[in-house]
Specification:
Elements lengths: L1 E6 L4 E8 L3 E9 L1 H5 L6 H22 L9 E7 L3 H18 L3 E5 H12 L7 E6 L4 E8 L2 E7 L5 H11 L6 H9 L23 H14 L5 H27 L3 E5 L6 H14 L2 E3 L3 H4 L3 H14 L18
Parallel strand pairs: 1-4, 4-5, 6-9, 9-10
Antiparallel strand pairs: 1-2, 2-3, 6-7, 7-8
């Protein structure tokens, strides 16, 4: 089954061709990072206009690189929720048009469902159930995944997402945008134990909180920033974020008895997070999965993979697909 995936939920325009939910024939991603860097974050109207410009060339390139014709496509999957409404609308409109022209099934995919599915592109036999930490600029959720269409939110951030904390802290430290990759890079030269930043511990829940950490970084940088290297500050901040993510995920394993962990989303590409998750999982005999960095950040291959399993199941194939700015992956 050949699936065309389309992703345009934020500032990346992406199209991908995936065969049988596991073989990536092409995965084209056009990033807008340079366009938004001058503003220190994504400007929705600018992103939407750029998607209009890029969507057709990106889809055509995905078809060409996969060495197929449009008539070879068996189904189309598109991110339709959640995300920037104008940005989503561009991808959904393109997907609807192609579905009608080619007379093939069309499915709307939840963005987090796509991130979770990225793990099946590298490990198609990863078993159910498992705990997924989906961590990105807009989301920090712990999700119990029972099947390809059965999700339960176990915990989530009560304020900032982890990726948002990276971006805002990088702005405070004058490191540039996007904050996650630059802090990860600089932190490699620093001592993660040089400064003890606070870790929020929310008893009896699997929720997260990063606002206090962000405030602590602001205060520290203003009062003592000149006494420490930027590498040490970045490494210590990153260590605090990673520590909260890892410990809460392990707490979810203990609470559920499910000995299988996956991570997904843009922050899952963070080298410190991957290292700590692998080490702590190995020590406890926990099966661990993480996609490569290119499949952690927004991409259409993960959407095509999720679409394959949805179409194959015969479920959730609506005649009309709406764009939804905000919606949890489960009730």
């Amino acid at each position: 089954m050949i699936i065309l995936g389309i992703e345009s939920s934020c500032d990346d325009t992406s199209a991908s061709i995936v065969k049988d939910g596991r073989e990536i024939l092409s995965n084209i991603i056009s990033s807008q990072i340079d366009l938004h860097a001058r503003f220190g974050g994504v400007v929705p109207e600018v992103a939407s206009r750029k998607h209009v410009e890029l969507i057709n060339p990106v889809i055509n390139e995905a078809i060409s690189k996969a060495n197929i014709c449009f008539t070879d496509i068996d189904g189309i999957a598109v991110t339709n929720r959640p995300g920037l409404l104008g940005a989503l609308l561009i991808g959904v409109t393109a997907a609807k048009s192609l579905s009608a022209a080619l007379d093939v099934p069309l499915v709307g995919i939840h963005h987090l469902q796509g991130h979770i599915a990225a793990n099946f592109l590298i490990n198609p036999n990863f078993g159910f159930p498992f705990i997924t930490l989906v961590v990105s600029g807009g989301h920090t959720d712990l999700i119990l995944v029972r099947s390809h269409d059965d999700y339960e939110i176990l915990g989530r951030t009560r304020d900032d997402a982890a990726g948002e904390a990276f971006d805002k802290s990088a702005r405070i430290l004058e490191l540039g945008y996007p904050g996650g990759p630059v802090i990860d890079r600089i932190a490699k030269e620093g001592n993660p134990k040089a400064i003890h930043f606070p870790r929020a511990k929310l008893d009896d829940t699997l929720d997260f909180s990063f606002s206090g950490l962000k405030t602590a970084v602001i205060r520290f940088y203003k009062e003592q920033g000149n006494k420490h290297s930027m590498a040490d500050i970045a490494a210590s901040f990153q260590d605090a974020v990673v520590d909260m993510l890892v410990q809460t995920t392990l707490k979810a394993v203990e609470a559920t008895g499910i000995n299988r962990i996956a991570i997904a989303g843009g922050v899952a590409a963070n080298s410190r997070l991957q290292q700590q998750m692998k080490e702590k999982s190995a020590k406890r005999g926990i099966e661990f999965s993480c996609p490569p960095p290119i499949l952690c950040t927004d991409n259409a291959a993960m959407i095509a993979c999720a679409g394959y399993y949805t179409i194959k199941s015969g479920k959730l194939i609506p005649k009309e697909i709406d764009t939804i700015a905000s919606q949890p992956i489960s009730g």
